[in-house]
Amino acid sequence: MKNSIQLLSLFLLFLTSSCVINDDDIHDHDFIDNDTIGATYELETNFSAQENSVRFTFPNNIVKSDVVLVYRLEAQDNGLDVWEPLPTATIFFDDGSTLIYRYNFTLGDVDIILENDNIDELSAEYTNRQVFRIVVVPANFANSNSVNLKNLHSVLSALKINENNISKVSLD
């Protein structure tokens, strides 16, 4: 009897410890990650020679393995937003100067930086009312190769984030 109870206990231990709950589905090579949580923030800022960077502090520290993606609203085309991933391609001006938007992040914040030799000489289209979207995604999602990370719409669609779920942030 004692052996039967031990055997039953061992069986139950094996049964419960070997169960894996995985709500990720793979259908026809399309990966759907049902447990990925993404956070998206939108902010508007101005740059100047005195302030060529802006810092956004996350409401809560992100997870160490999270990846931060940043996009800049480059233009509007027929009423549709055109989002450009950072870092941007280098913009070359006729006077020989260049411009690039880039970013870096920690677990607590992200810095968006405008690099230019003479920011005061830049047109307001490059410095004023610049709109950025910051998307925080788990590393598994970023490394999955199933989503084009250079396309903000693809990222938001895969994360099932719509415009109503984007937190508009004021840096004032």
TrEMBL record:
Instruction: Tell me which positions the record assigns to the signal sequence.
Output: 1-22
Query: Where does the source fall among the domains of life?
Result: Bacteria
Entry keywords, A to Z: Signal
Protein's name according to its UniProt entry: Collagen-like protein
Species for this entry: Aquimarina hainanensis
